[in-house]
Amino acid sequence: GINLTKGLGAGALPDVGKGAAEESIDEIMEHIKDSHMLFITAGMGGGTGTGAAPVIAKAAREARAAVKDRAPKEKKILTVGVVTKPFGFEGVRRMRIAELGLEELQKYVDTLIVIPNQNLFRIANDKTTFSDAFKLADNVLHIGIRGVTDLMVMPGLINLDFADIETVMSEMGKAMIGTGEATGEDRAISAAEAAISNPLLDNVSMKGAQGILINITGGGDMTLFEVDAAANRVREEVDENANIIFGATFDQAMEGRVRVSVLATGIDSNVNRDDNSSSNQSESSEQEKLKWAYSQNVGVQDKLPETKEYST
C-alpha cells in the first residue's frame, strides 16, 4: 500500500489495512502464486493484521479457483491462518474489532488457529519478562507448524506427503495445534500429554475434531513401542470416527528426547457458528459501529492518520 499508507502502518484502522493489501495484492500474489501451502500469521485487533489478512486469504482462494478452472489436476493453495487476539488490557473495542476480523478471515482460510494473548498468563509467572512471554508463544507456534512440515521433508519411520496434509486441513475451519517434548522414563506418554494440554488455546477441545495429524519425532533411540504409546494417548482424546493421519520422523539432535506435535482440525465448527450467530443483541449495534467495509473501500484515504511442554 505504498500510495495509501506511504510506507507507514495502518493507524489501527482495519479498512486502511484492507485498502493497503488490495493496492499491493498483485505484488503479494507474485510471491505466493506457485505455493502449495500458505501460512498467514497476524495480530488481530489492529489495522494491518485485521484488515490485510482476509484480503490475502481471499486472493489465495480465488487464485486456486482459477487454477482449478484452467487445469483441474493442479494443486490448490492450502491456506492456514495462525492469528492472535489482543490482551484484555487493550480494551473492549480492540477485542471486538479482532472478533470481526476473525469472522471475516475464517470465510477464506482452510484452517484457522487462534491464540489469545491473554492466555500467556497461563504459562507465565511474576518473574517472566514481557519479551520472554512472547518468545514462549512464538516457539510453540514454530514447533507446531514445523511438526506439520517435517512430516513431508524429514526422513522417518512413517512419512507423509502433501496430499495427506491436505486431507486433514482443507476446508476444516477452526483448529488447535499443540506440541510436547519430554525425556526420561515414559517420555513418549509425557510428550503426548503435553501436546494435548494446550494452555494457550482459545478455549477449544480436541473432542469434536474431524481430522487429526500426529507427528512423533525422536532420535535413533526412539522405539516402536514409544511411537505406539504416544499415538494411542492422543487417539484416546478424539472421536473414534475422526480421520487420523500419523507420521514419525527421526532427528539425531533429538537423541534422548521425544517430541509429539498434534494438529486437530474441524473443531466444534457447528458450535462456534452458533455462538457467533447468537451473540448478545445488546452488543450488535456497537459492533456495527466498529465494522469496516470489506466489499467497498469508501473514504479510506480520509481516515489515514499522519516451554517445551506448551501447546497452541
Feature tags:
single chain, 312 residues, alpha/beta, 8-stranded mixed sheet, 8 strands, globular, disordered C terminus
Secondary structure elements and their pairing?
Blueprint: H1 2-5, H2 14-23, H3 25-32, E1 37-43, H4 48-70, E2 78-85, H5 92-106, E3 111-116, H6 130-153, E4 156-158, H7 162-169, E5 173-183, H8 187-195, E6 211-218, H9 224-235, E7 243-250, E8 257-265, H10 269-277, H11 281-290, H12 300-303
Parallel strand pairs: 1-2, 2-3, 3-5, 6-7
Antiparallel strand pairs: 4-7, 5-8, 6-8
Helix pairs in contact: 2-4, 3-4, 4-5, 8-9
So how many helices? Answer: 12
Helicity range: 40-55%
How are the strands of the largest sheet arranged?
Answer: 1-2-3-5-8-6-7-4
Percent in strands? 15-25%
Order of helices and strands: HHHEHEHEHEHEHEHEEHHH
Structural class: alpha/beta
Low-confidence stretches: 269-312
Indicate the overall shape: globular
The average pLDDT value, as a whole number, equals 79
Major sheet, described briefly? 8 strands, mixed
Radius of gyration from CA coordinates: 20 Å
Give the number of DSSP strands.
Answer: 8
Distance separating the two termini: 32 Å
